[in-house]
Write a structure and sequence with these properties.
The structure holds two protein chains of two kinds. Chain A is an all-alpha fold. Chain A has 16 helices and no strands. In chain A, helix 9 crosses helix 14 and helix 12 runs parallel beside helix 15. Chain B has a single domain, classed as Four Helix Bundle (Hemerythrin (Met), subunit A) (Up-down Bundle). Chain B is built from seven helices and no strands. Classes of the chains: A mainly alpha, B mainly alpha. Bound molecules: protoporphyrin IX containing FE and copper (II) ion.
């Protein structure tokens, strides 16, 4: 992609960012480092830790639901479980997720920069993340116990309940600022730090997606910040703003909540789409089909996505005109997502597809995200929505989108970029085995939810009527398969970090973006010389597998 | 991973004033949206309870409000002048005007303090018995009043701290005639604080 690949980062006298010794060394060299790559890894540690906690809580919930009646936890505990699970998975795992880990690590590299625009602010964001996470966990141990409101904190219950609601609220508030500052940093980085010759349409597609996401982060987050703060203050001081007993309007809370939280689903999914657009050309050895369509559809999703929030509230009381408009807009917003799917499939067509682990996860993404997306469009239809509202169908739908979509894209990114980040290769065969466990387990876990939701199983219930038992049983068994897969997957990745074969090859997959032209692992400031970009990304001139593809394991 | 590790002494200096300004503008955007959320809530309830808002607003002291508006407007001016001064390399003049800005900001906060405590003495504060006996519209008016002016006051305090840092930077030469983007950004922030007040003032004080 750059004019002369040989001069970039070949200077082997420079230590990698992992060995680099700056002002501080040891653990301080990490905790005080402003290197975007180290911060990316700090985020990775935090985000994965919370992911494991969240998965464990999900596992407990599924166990409770294995049979009707009280199985392992009481109704109250179940309420606290799904709330904590939701808060952790949303605010601590999936929203920061891809941008905070891979955006931090790769965005500057992909545009040929040495770091983000505001490195110190970047480190500060991580500390905010850590603070938010701590606040969320504190609610477990403090008297009152974790909140039982659901991750949506709907008023008036969130003002009346005796559990610790203020802690998760302030956690979400602080995490919001962390996310907002990351967004601000990325926008400025993309505007100011692109290497010479890297025009907008020469940017890799993941950069486009990080850029679009950053705008959503900056524009939507303040609304949720102030809204959640108002709920906390409502609890503390009884200002009455949302409390119906004092004249406030709880539906207004729902509007403000979803004005952020619907765009937030695009904060989750757009970066995932960027990852997919990055991996597909590499493992099909083809130029991406419809580059501009994919780039602009990210922006279109970001724009339309901010206008559809009220589809979460069709049953909360709304004028017919409002219902009609929000229903229509919801269906329109599916179009840019579908454009992406068609372009990806068109890229696959006649490509020489290499079914390595990253590609498997990407293919699974397309499949699962399509199910998630289509079930989403279904709920945009008001008559169906009224039937499905607050049923297990919704739970199935959003797990397909968030976990099957963003989660799988993140797993793809791990398998794609980890060798670059750490200079170690995982066991590729084991990675594929793990994939099949995860993929099959996932569908066993969540597809029954779609079916039983259709049949009337409500969400957020720890108990159910006997006719739903078979579905719940299958779903719980699915969760065991899925979690087995996750254990194999992360065992494989972590083991690679310690004892996997060392990779020094710069371009282990035959990618055409800038990260594959610098050292593995990258040196401290990525490039010894800032590259000059002359070609568009993904310019595969022929259909040949570029580098020799020997199994290193 | 390569075995040889070199200790790097040189610090990477990177300066991008346009980038810094862009970052600040984005941040101000988020602040506007943050207050925008509150203004949405305000307008919803103003339309729901027009009479009660009208009545409740009579409780506010328009004189203090006007005074505070003048103070903040003046402080925006002194802030702007301090930036012009630094551009002309007049360091002590710039310091003087930065100090004047802090002084005016403190003055604003003192007024605010007296205004709030006077209300408290009348038993008007969130959750008070007096207030809870009033109509919903009045409860909401004062709820919003305390929330919004309180949040604004918090921004004033943050502004004071920021300007204090700028005075330190200016006297140490970190902010200078050829590198004043920090002071400029602080100025932008301060103008935002001012602008928000310009909206708060009529919405609370002048609707009676
Ligand atoms: C092994 C993994 C997981 C399992 C077993 C699991 C299971 C569950 C279960 C049983 C519920 C409660 C359904 C109900 O009673 O209403 C739930 C809710 C939820 N899950 Fe998961 N989940 C997993 C992973 C994830 C991931 C990766 C995400 C996000 C990316 C996520 C986000 C949520 C959210 C937002 C809720 C709603 C909480 C609420 O109702 O307030 N989950 N999950
Ligand atoms: Cu939505």
């Amino acid at each position: 992609m750059a004019s002369d690949a040989e001069v970039i980062g070949t200077n082997r006298h420079e230590p990698s960012y992992l060995d680099y010794k700056g002002k501080h060394s040891g653990i301080k060299g990490w905790l005080l480092s402003t290197d975007h790559k180290r911060i990316g890894i700090l985020y990775m540690i935090g985000i994965l830790t919370f992911f494991f906690v969240g998965v464990f809580l999900g596992f407990l919930m599924r166990l409770e639901l294995i049979a009707p009646g009280e199985t392992i936890v009481s109704a109250e505990t179940y309420n606290q479980l799904f709330t904590l699970h939701g808060v952790i998975m949303i605010f601590l795992f999936i929203i920061p997720g891809i941008p905070a880990i891979f955006g931090n690590f790769f965005l500057p590299i992909l545009i040929g920069a040495k770091d983000v625009a505001f490195p110190r602010l970047n480190l500060f964001s991580w500390y905010l993340y850590l603070t938010g996470g701590t606040l969320a966990l504190l609610s477990i141990v403090l008297p009152g116990g974790p909140a039982d409101t659901g991750w949506t904190f709907y008023i008036p219950y969130s003002v009346r309940t005796g559990t610790n609601v203020i802690l998760p609220l302030s956690a979400a508030f602080v995490l919001g600022f962390s996310s907002l500052l990351t967004g601000l940093n990325f926008i400025t980085t993309v505007h100011r730090l692109r290497a010479p010759g890297m025009t907008w349409f020469k940017m890799p597609l993941s950069v486009w997606s990080f850029y679009a996401t950053a705008w959503v982060q900056v524009l939507a987050t303040p609304i949720i910040a102030i809204t959640l703060m108002l709920v906390a203050i409502e609890r503390l001081l009884h200002i009455g703003i949302f409390d119906p007993a004092l004249g406030g309007d709880p539906v207004l809370y729902q509007h403000l909540f979803w004005i952020y939280s619907h765009p937030a689903v695009y904060i989750m999914i757009i970066p995932a789409m960027g990852i997919v657009s990055e991996i597909i050309p590499v493992f099909t050895h083809r130029t991406i089909f419809g580059y501009k369509f994919i780039a602009f559809s990210s922006i279109a999703i970001a724009l339309f996505g901010s206008l559809v929030w009220a589809h979460h509230m069709f049953t909360a009381g709304m004028s017919d005109a409002g219902q009609f408009i929000f229903s229509l807009l919801t269906m329109i917003v599916a179009i840019p997502s579908a454009i992406k799917v068609f372009n990806w499939v068109a890229t696959l067509y006649k490509g020489s597809i290499d079914l390595a682990a990253p590609m498997l996860y990407v293919l699974a993404f397309i499949f699962l995200f399509s199910i998630g997306g289509l079930t989403g469009v279904m709920q945009g239809v008001i008559s169906i929505n009224i039937q499905f509202h607050d049923t297990a169908f919704i739970v199935g739908h959003f797990h397909y989108v968030m976990f099957g979509g963003t989660g799988f894209a993140m797993f793809a990114a791990f398998h794609y970029w980890m060798p670059k980040m750490f200079g170690r290769m995982y066991n590729r065969k084991l990675a594929k085995i793990a994939f099949w466990f995860v993929f099959i387990g996932f569908n066993f876990l969540y597809f029954p939810m779609l079916v039983m939701g259709w049949l009337g199983m409500p969400r957020r219930y720890y108990d159910y009527l006997p006719q739903f038992h078979p579905y719940h049983l299958i779903s719980t068994i699915g969760s065991w398969i899925l979690i087995t897969g996750l254990i194999i997957m992360f065992y494989n990745l972590f083991k690679a970090l310690r004892s996997g074969p060392v990779v020094t090859e710069k371009n282990m997959w035959g990618g055409e973006t800038l990260e594959w032209q610098i050292d593995t692992p990258p040196i401290h400031e990525n490039f010894t010389e800032i590259p000059v970009i002359e070609e568009r990304p993904y310019m595969y001139k022929d259909n040949d597998p570029p580098v020799e593809k020997e199994e290193t394991v | 991973m390569s075995a040889n590790t070199i200790v790097h002494a040189e610090v990477h200096v990177h300066r991008d004033d346009i980038g810094a300004r862009l970052g600040m503008w984005l941040f101000l955007f988020t602040e506007l949206i943050l207050f925008g959320g509150m203004f949405i809530v305000y307008s919803v309830y103003r339309f729901t309870y027009p009479e009660e808002f009208h009545l409740a607003a009579q409780e506010l002291n328009t004189i203090i409000g006007t005074l505070n508006t003048i103070i903040l407007l003046t402080s925006s001016l002194t802030m702007a002048v301090s930036i012009v001064a630094i551009q002309k390399n007049k360091i002590s003049l710039s310091l003087f005007f930065q100090f004047a800005t802090i002084f005016l900001a403190l003055f604003f906060m003192v007024n605010k303090y007296f205004e709030w405590t006077a209300k408290f003495d009348h038993g008007i504060y969130p959750g008070s018995d007096t207030l809870l006996n009033e109509s919903s519209g009045q409860i909401l008016f004062f709820g919003l009043y305390y929330m919004m002016t309180g949040l604004h006051g918090l921004h004033v305090i943050i502004g004071i701290v920021m300007i204090a840092f700028m005075m330190r930077f200016t006297s140490k030469g970190i902010v200078s005639y050829d590198n004043y983007v920090k002071l400029e950004n602080t100025g932008l922030y301060w103008h935002l604080v001012d602008i928000i007040w310009i909206f708060l003032f009529p919405l609370f004080y002048l609707i009676s």
